[in-house]
Amino acid sequence: MTASASRTRRRRFASVGLLVAGVVMVVVVAAWLLFPALSIPSARLMGWQLHGFNGTGFDPTTAQTTDVVRVAVAVWPTEYPATDDSWLATPAVTYTPWSVTITLHTSDSYASLIAGKIFGLYDTGGWVDVHLSEPLGGRALFDGSTFPPTARPYP
Fold first, then answer.
1. Do residue 20 and residue 66 come from a single domain?
2. Which domain holds residue 14?
3. Which of 28, 46, 62, 103 is the most buried (most CB within 10 A)?
4. In angstroms, what is the C-alpha Rg of the chain?
5. At 53, is the secondary structure helix, strand, or coil?
6. pLDDT tens, 116-140?
């Protein structure tokens, strides 16, 4: 094998290596953007159900135009009245053409408040209105507090 053939082979190998590294980085960034739960410590994530009987919050007709989704949080800190959701951070909402994923998590101030302390949690939960930046449009809803996100059907 000549020296020039060896250099050509090394260049190809380096090019393929850079391409693979680039693809891996794109996949990691896409997963981080589409699944906020991957970037939030699991202890701060809060699961939710749709508000209403059996977790069905609205009918399919409403699902086309609604931009507010009322969700029931399973547990609620005893130090906060049921009407005070300030312990929750602004919901992370991810939109795709076929789905909307809502990820609820505790706020930074609440996380620092409870650090090293034990607070009680009501198992009766409470309700939170999640305001969407665009109508739901009949897309599937997912709870992003788990990975993979859990489906929350509304019909």
1. no
2. 1-34
3. 103
4. 22
5. helix
6. 565 666 556 788 999 999 999 999 9
